[in-house]
Structure formats: structure tokens, C-alpha cells
Automatic annotation (TrEMBL):
InterPro entries hit by this protein: DEAD/DEAH_box_helicase_dom, DNA_helicase_ATP-dep_RecQ, Helicase_ATP-bd, Helicase_C-like, P-loop_NTPase, RecQ_Zn-bd, RQC_domain, WH-like_DNA-bd_sf
Name the UniProt record assigns to this protein: ATP-dependent DNA helicase
Organism: Scomber scombrus (Atlantic mackerel)
Pfam families per record: DEAD, Helicase_C, RecQ_Zn_bind
The family this protein is said to belong to: Belongs to the helicase family. RecQ subfamily.
Record field: catalytic activity: Couples ATP hydrolysis with the unwinding of duplex DNA by translocating in the 3'-5' direction; ATP + H2O = ADP + phosphate + H(+); dATP + H2O = dADP + phosphate + H(+)
């Protein structure tokens, strides 16, 4: 068929119209998003107005429940007047409640919302209570428990939390028991019998969600207690764990719906400090509670001062800064430094000790006895600082913590709120400081990549840190769906304190440059890691590429800020590449990148600009770009560079010999122990050598490709250059793990607070770092649980043994090994959700729980999958050894 020139024109126009339509769609999506944000804000303001106009609004809870009506459920279920009645003390139980508050709990008065919550639950209402960290949520089920007939069932995610609470209740003569993996048979028997005994000696029973999911005996006893009217209440602590959208999702919380289905008349009380309305809606469904009353106290902890500091890329400098802050501002005062990994916990603690600060590490892989000692000593004020991973979080209730410093940003705003919420629980002023660094974003990114909304949440946290013009509290308020009055901060955040310490810059040209760099790299079959993108834009990298792109005169800090901004706003996105051992991150164009093609699209960004130097740098760069604009999109080899850029370009040119076409992936590798630098260096050198031999040929090919590109011709069948990480950054990662903070027993502080990593427990089986080779690639699936790290390699190791394998078998084994490594990593990753759980013997038992969270083919059971994994591995093994 003849497709003449006419058709070509039509096709060209069609392409252009389609491209324009794409742009319009993006703009519509943008506007729709803006519309929904504004509508939400409008509704919130309307609610605020309505509340303000309500003459009968009681003073008792108004200050703290400003957004309680955001749970529209309240209003539909109960009128405001009726709701206010629950702030009163004219119920049949009121006297009892008052008396126990003073006599049992030794408290003089209620904090805002406590009495309302207690009255509501005692009246049999289902209730979700969202109250800030440290405000006294526990009292809202503990006090009703002692005022009610029968037993209150409390679901808690952590054994440590459970132990702490039971110990505390015992200390005030309130009888409470717990059932967990370490309970003896006899104890379990007594507890189960007590459930149906009207004269039972305990008022509260603490269990983990897993216990509910697994113990049929417990469920049957609860059923009997229910029928005998002896199950008075169900409290689900940290209720946000039900929802995948919550920041600490636990699969077994999903099964708790059985409670309301089996015991519909028992009032349920869900408690959390961090849940957005969508998370609560999700929890409502999961727990099968219909139209619960939602009481929401303001998230605002007025005594906490929030601050973000830019982290120096030189670790030494940031440690110095932290140390001097602690020594100058918090002399002899208690605090926490949160870090990213186990290794960081040990090294930062050691660095602080070197600077005469009494700091001890705390992380999930420490001996439980050591953890318990550190916790205890810190609580007693004998240790000034705990340098901790997230393992030291929920349930840490020390009143006089004056500072919480984040050496690395948290993985979400919810996490940050929880972690920083350990500060100032005595209502006195305390500081929450985050050190925010470019490379940390990508370290965390590799950690949260497996989580369903991990990336989005991380970017919101990054946005919080990057922000220079909005009150930090207002960002949290929007995040927690709260109506925010700007006066509410009272200059208790760095932004409100240093108002006007920023300038608005038009970064449209900068953004176009970044997009162009990625496009050029992609045309050269190159993938750029975040670090390489920064360097490329600043004029480093292969000369061939430099000739094709526009470099910048912005400072490194500004370059990083712009790239992060583009990532947060969707002009860039991360691209993950997985190997059995590592996760690589590369930067790609995001869904909004095409908008930059339109000349009318502009992009501005607020930047901190303390020095005029950096300010003028930005302006100079913008001016330079404007003059260049239109002159070229791709600079030809003969073009003479101008101004500052010329200096940079020639400086880089001088270094050209040293710059190779390399890749610098950010790597998360939690499968291998830290490698000696020498070994790493050797591996890199080997890879470099391999690359060197290819580079010349490759450069020739690139030249041709570029020529083709300019001529708008696509060379058919061009081979992609294999990506060979030359510079591998080995990151030691502790996945967001919560674990058992041991019980106090009065022991000494560990003699060697900072343990060397000699016997570090890896989070996944240890493996050689090299790429698996066919001849040594027998699937050495460990005979231990996936969490164990001493995998024994039974693969043939000598050349003679290897030679008996056919090439196809070797290749297949190699694939299989990769597959299992990846599966084991995933299983292991998910297993961390279960660290607080009873360890059960047997491989199947060990991986069953994590497997629940994996997506299995329909009609395939978990046991079948587990068994088939093992059968396939052993089958392959036999094949190899034959
Ligand atoms: N009405 C009150 N008056 C004084 N102190 C109180 C009152 N209610 C609770 N507290 C104290 O506040 C502290 C924090 O209480 P609790 O552990 O219940 O907080 P929380 O809301 O569960 O916090 P988090 O979510 O951070 O665990 C406890 O030490 C508790 O004794």
C-alpha cells in the first residue's frame, strides 16, 4: 500500500496532537489535585467556623479536639450536645471513675479527651481515639477496665509494650496478665480459666494479634467469657497497624475483624497517635466496626520545637555538629539520636563517646540483655544518649527527654512524629532536630521499595525536610488532616523562627537541563544514579556526554535541592533495579517531565539563600540559560562554551582522562556483611578492567549512535551496553524492625557499650558478593530459616566437579539461585514484621507467615508454595550432583 507524503503529514500532525493532549491531561490532573486539596481545606475551614459558632462548645476538650468533628461519623451518629454530655461526670460509673483515677492511678485530673473517651467506652460505644504521643491513651482503657465487670482484652503489637504495661499496672496494684510465646503452659491454663471466672483476679489480658489469629483455645474461652458477660471491652492499641496505609502495618492485625464478628456487643476501642482519616476508614473496615465514634485530639505537641538541618555530606562534620549541639545545648540532659542502621548506631555512638558524650547504641540485633540494660540505664538517667534505630520507638515512655535528633531522616512523617514524640513527655520544652542529606533519601528509598506506599510516604517526609517556607507544624497538620491555625506554632519551628530566610527562584531552565541530561544519557544507553545525575549536571562525566548537555553553576547543595524537588514534584522518578544481592537506584523522567517541553510551563522553588553568593549563582545561571535558550538544545563539539560554564567545562576537560563512563549506583545490600575495603576495591578494579576493554569499542559505537540521533535515525538492532556497577556503595541496612525491649532486672551497664560488628547478624543469608557464576551456582538454599545467615554452600566448587554440569543446567541453576535469593530476601524482609513473635521451629513454620504477604497464584496455598519451593530446590540439587 502506498503511504505517500500526505499520510506522513497526517501522521506527524496526529503525533503532535497526541503529544499536546498528553500535556493537557497532565495539566488537568494537576488542577484536579489542586481542586481536591482546596476542597478538603474548604471543608475543614467550614467545620472550624461551625465549631467556633457553636455557643455550647465546652472548654474542657475544645482545645484539644479541634478536629474531632472531622470524623463526620461522630456527627451522623451523635449530636454535638449528646457528645458534650460525655465530658461530664453524671454517669452511674462517674464516682467509681474519679475514685480509681486518684486511688489506683494516682492522678489528680484528666487530660483533654480522656474523660470523654472513658465515658463513651463505658457507655458501650465503639471508639477510635487518635491522641498525640505521650498524652495518655492507655488510661482510656485501663481505667474503664478496673471500673467494669469482667476482663478487658488488650491487643498490643509488641511484647515489650505489653511487658511494660503489665509491670506498670502491677506496680499500682491493678491486676493484669499477658499471654505470649514465653508464657508457660500453666500460666496460660490459669489465664484461660480466669476468663470465665467471675471472681478472676485480673482485669486486663494483654495479647498479640497473632495470638488471636492462632489460638483457637483462646478464642473459644473468649467466646465463653462473652456469653457469660465477662468480656467487658476490647482495646486495640496502635490501631493504625491494621492498615497498609498506616506506617507500621502488621498483617495479623488484618485478622482482628473476627473479634467484632464474634463478640458484636463488646465495645471496641482503637488507639493510635498517628492515623489519617483514610487509615481510620481502612481500620474501620478491617475491624468490622460500623460507624465508630472518632475522637481526635490535636496532633500538636506545643512544647516540641521542630528543626531541620542540612546534613553535611562529610559524616564527620555532621557528627561534630550533633556532638556540639548536645554538649552546648543539652548538657546533662537526656536524649535520643535516631540513625538509619545497626552499623550507624554503633559508629555514631562510638563517635559521640569519642567526643565525651555518654552515648550507647540500641538496635534490633543487639543481645536482648544488652538492650534491656541500655534502656534501663537511660531511663534511670545513667546514660545521656541512646543512639538507636527504629527498634527504640513505640512504648518508650521517659518523661524528661529534652532532645530527639535524627541523624538520618525517618521513612515517613508518621514515623517521624512517633519517633520525635519521645521528646518532652513531661510537657516541658524539648527539641526535635532532623539532619537531612541527599544520599540518605536514596538509602531509605531502597529500604521502603517493597512497601506498598513506602515511596510516596518517604517523599512526603523529604518534602517536610526540603520545605523552607511553610510552618513545619502546618505540614504535619495537613498530613494528619487537621485544620491548622498558623498561630498554633508559636515560633516553635525553625521556619516560623527564621521567616523570610528564603527566596523564590524560577527553576524552569534548571529543570529542563536535568531532563535533558537524562534524555541524553538514555540515548547513550546510560542510566544515571542520583549521584551521577548530580555530577553530570555539575559537569563531570564522560566528555562525550558533557558536550551534549548544559551544565550548571549552582552550588552542589542547590543542585541536590533542585533534583530532590523535581523528584518530589513528579518531574523525575526513581527506577529500581534488583539483583539477588543489591538494589540499584537510577533516575528517570517522571510523569510530569513532558510538561517542561511546553514553553508556557514554569516551575519555581523556594530555596534557603543565606549567602548572596549562592543567590547570585542561581541568578547568574538563570541569566546564562536565558541567553542560551533557543540557541541550541544540543551543543556541537565545536561550540565555544561561555562564561562560568566555560571555565567549568575546560576544568573538567583537563580532567577528562580521569573521567570514565562509569555508573555509581546507590546500593542497598542487606544480604552481605560489610566487606573489607580491600576486597571491595579488588572487585571494583576487576569490573573496571573488564569495562576498560569494552570502553573503546563502546565509545566508537556511542559516537555513531549520537550521529544517528542527530540525524534522527534509529540504528536498528543496537546492542545495549551491559550496566556494570563500578563503584558499589555497600550500605548496611536494618529494616524497620520493632523488637523486644527487655524487662528491667537491675543489671549493670554493658562493659563495652559499642560492640564491634564482628559477629553481626545479617538480615538475610550471607552470600558471596560476586555475581553467581554458572559453574558454582548450585542453589545453596540454607537449611535454616531465611533469617539465619550461615548458609552452607553445597555446590560443586572444584573445576572438575563443575565441569560435569551441562551449560544449560548451569544456566538454569544460576536463574534458580537468583530467583530464590530474591524470594528469600523478600521473605526475610517481611519476616521482620514478625520479630516480636514467637520463634517456631521448622522451615515451613518460619516462612509461612511472611509468605502470607506474598502474592501467590490463585488457588495455591502457602504450604503448597513453601513445599514446592523446597522440592524444586532439592530436585535441582540432585540433578547437579548426579
Ligand atoms: N491525666 C493524666 N495526668 C497526668 N499524667 C498522665 C495522665 N494520663 C496519662 N498520664 C501519663 O502520661 C504518660 C504517657 O501515657 P501513655 O503511655 O498512655 O501515652 P500514649 O498516649 O500511649 O503515648 P504513645 O503513643 O507515645 O505511647 C504516662 O507516663 C502516664 O502516666
Amino acid at each position: 500500500m502506498d503511504c505517500g507524503g500526505g499520510n506522513n503529514d497526517v501522521q506527524a500532525e496526529l503525533d503532535s496532537v497526541e503529544a499536546e493532549l498528553d500535556l493537557v491531561e497532565l495539566q488537568i490532573a494537576d488542577l484536579l489535585q489542586k481542586q481536591s486539596e482546596l476542597t478538603a481545606r474548604k471543608n475543614a475551614l467550614l467545620c472550624q467556623l461551625e465549631e467556633a459558632c457553636d455557643a455550647a462548645h465546652p472548654s474542657a476538650s475544645s482545645s484539644s479536639s479541634s478536629s474531632s468533628s472531622k470524623a463526620s461519623g461522630d456527627v451522623s451518629v451523635m449530636s454535638k450536645q449528646e457528645m458534650q454530655r460525655y465530658d461530664g461526670a453524671d454517669f452511674e460509673w462517674s464516682k467509681d471513675v474519679e475514685q480509681h483515677l486518684k486511688d489506683s492511678f494516682h492522678l489528680s485530673k484528666f487530660r483533654p479527651l480522656q474523660l470523654r473517651a472513658i465515658n463513651l467506652t463505658l457507655a458501650g460505644r465503639d471508639l477510635f481515639l487518635v491522641m498525640p504521643t505521650g498524652r495518655g491513651k492507655s488510661l482510656c482503657y485501663q481505667l474503664p477496665a478496673v471500673c467494669s465487670k469482667g476482663v478487658t482484652l488488650v491487643i498490643t503489637p509488641l511484647l515489650s509494650l505489653m511487658e511494660d504495661q503489665v509491670m506498670f499496672l502491677k506496680s499500682i496494684d491493678v491486676s493484669a496478665v499477658m499471654l505470649n510465646s514465653s508464657s508457660s503452659k500453666e500460666h496460660a491454663k490459669t489465664v484461660l480459666a480466669g476468663l470465665t471466672d467471675p471472681k478472676a483476679s485480673f482485669k486486663l489480658l494483654y495479647v498479640t494479634p497473632e495470638k488471636i489469629a492462632k489460638s483457637k483455645l483462646l478464642m473459644s474461652r473468649l467466646e465463653k467469657a462473652y456469653n457469660a458477660n465477662l468480656l467487658s471491652r476490647i482495646a486495640v492499641d496502635e490501631v493504625h497497624c491494621c492498615s497498609q496505609w498506616g506506617h507500621d502495618f502488621r498483617p495479623d492485625y488484618k485478622l482482628l475483624g473476627i473479634l467484632k464478628r464474634q463478640f458484636p456487643k463488646v465495645p471496641l476501642l482503637g488507639l493510635t497517635a498517628t492515623a489519617t482519616s483514610s487509615v481510620l476508614k481502612d481500620c474501620e473496615k478491617i475491624l468490622c466496626v460500623s460507624q465508630p465514634i472518632v475522637l481526635t485530639a490535636s496532633f500538636n505537641r506545643t512544647n516540641l520545637h521542630y528543626e531541620v538541618r542540612i546534613k553535611d555530606s562529610d559524616n564527620e562534620a555532621s557528627i561534630n555538629d550533633i556532638a556540639s549541639t548536645i554538649k552546648n545545648r543539652y548538657k546533662d540532659q537526656s536524649g535520643i539520636v535516631y540513625v538509619f542502621s545497626q552499623k550507624d548506631a554503633e559508629s555514631v555512638a562510638s563517635e559521640l563517646q569519642n567526643r565525651d558524650i555518654l552515648a550507647y547504641p540500641y538496635h534490633a540485633h543487639m543481645d536482648p540483655v544488652d538492650k534491656s540494660r541500655v534502656h534501663r540505664k537511660w531511663t534511670a538517667g545513667k546514660i545521656q544518649v541512646v543512639v538507636a534505630t527504629v527498634a527504640f520507638g513505640m512504648g518508650i515512655d521517659k518523661s524528661n527527654v529534652r532532645f530527639v535528633i535524627h541523624h538520618t531522616i525517618s521513612k515517613s512523617i508518621e514515623n517521624y512524629y512517633q519517633e520525635s514524640g519521645r521528646a518532652g513527655r513531661d510537657d516541658r520544652p524539648a527539641d526535635c532536630i532532623v539532619y537531612y542529606g541527599f544520599s540518605d533519601i536514596f538509602r531509605i528509598s531502597t529500604m521502603v521499595v517493597m512497601e506498598s506506599v513506602g515511596q510516596q510516604k518517604l517523599l512526603l517526609m523529604v518534602d517536610y525536610c526540603q520545605n523552607v517556607d511553610r510552618c513545619r507544624r502546618s505540614i504535619m497538620a495537613v498530613h494528619f488532616d487537621e485544620v491548622w491555625d498558623n498561630k498554633g506554632c508559636n515560633q516553635m519551628c525553625d521556619v516560623c523562627r527564621n521567616q523570610k530566610d528564603f527566596s523564590t527562584m524560577d527553576i524552569t531552565q534548571h529543570a529542563r537541563q536535568v531532563v535533558q541530561i537524562i534524555e541524553v544519557a538514555s540515548s547513550m544507553d546510560e542510566k544515571l544514579t542520583p549521584l551521577k545525575l548530580v555530577e553530570a549536571w555539575m559537569g563531570k562525566g564522560p566528555a562525550k556526554r558533557r558536550k551534549l548537555i548544559e551544565t550548571t553553576t549552582l552550588s552542589r547543595q542547590q543542585v541536590e535541592a533542585v533534583i530532590v524537588y523535581l523528584l518530589v514534584k513528579g518531574y523525575l522518578k526513581e527506577d529500581f533495579s534488583f539483583t539477588p544481592y543489591t538494589t540499584y537506584i537510577y533516575m528517570k523522567l517522571g510523569h510530569k517531565a513532558p510538561l517542561l517541553k511546553s514553553q508556557t510551563h514554569t516551575l519555581s522553588m523556594k530555596m534557603k539563600m543565606k549567602t548572596t553568593e549562592s543567590g547570585s549563582a542561581v541568578k547568574a545561571a538563570i541569566a546564562k540559560n536565558k541567553t542560551k535558550e533557543g540557541k541550541r538544545s544540543v551543543q556541537s563539539a565545536g561550540d565555544a562554551p561561555v562564561g562560568q560554564a566555560a571555565k567549568e567545562t575546560s576544568a573538567v576537560k583537563a580532567n577528562e582522562e580521569e573521567v570514565d563512563i562509569t555508573f555509581d549506583p546507590v546500593v542497598m545490600d542487606n544480604s552481605c556483611p560489610p566487606q573489607p575495603k580491600q576486597k571491595l576495591f579488588k572487585e571494583q578494579r576487576n569490573l573496571s578492567r573488564k569495562q576498560d576493554s569494552e570502553t573503546d569499542k563502546w565509545a566508537e559505537r556511542i559516537k555513531k549512535q549520537l550521529a544517528d540521533r542527530h540525524g534522527e535515525e534509529e540504528e536498528e538492532g543496537k546492542k545495549k551496553r551491559p550496566i556494570m556497577p563500578q563503584h558499589v556503595v555497600h550500605v548496611d541496612v536494618e529494616i524497620n524492625t520493632v523488637d523486644n525491649v527487655g524487662v528491667c532486672d537491675g543489671e549493670e551497664t554493658p562493659a563495652h557499650p559499642v560492640k564491634p560488628c564482628s559477629k553481626r547478624k545479617s538480615t538475610t543469608p550471607q552470600r558471596a558478593r560476586r555475581k553467581p557464576r554458572a559453574h558454582a551456582a548450585a542453589p545453596d538454599v540454607p537449611s535454616q530459616s531465611p533469617g539465619c545467615d550461615t548458609a552452607t554452600n553445597t555446590a560443586p566448587s572444584s573445576p572438575s566437579q563443575a565441569s560435569i554440569m551441562s551449560e544449560t543446567a548451569a544456566e538454569e541453576l544460576c536463574h534458580l539461585r537468583n530467583y530464590y535469593s530474591k524470594q528469600l530476601r523478600r521473605i526475610n524482609y517481611i519476616s521482620h514484621e514478625y520479630l516480636g513473635q514467637p520463634a517456631q521451629p521448622g522451615v515451613l513454620a518460619c516462612i509461612r507467615e511472611p509468605l502470607r504477604s506474598l502474592r501467590l497464584p490463585s488457588r495455591v496455598t502457602i504450604s503448597q508454595t513453601a513445599r514446592s519451593l523446597w522440592t524444586r530446590v532439592s530436585g535441582r540439587r540432585k540433578l547437579v550432583h548426579r
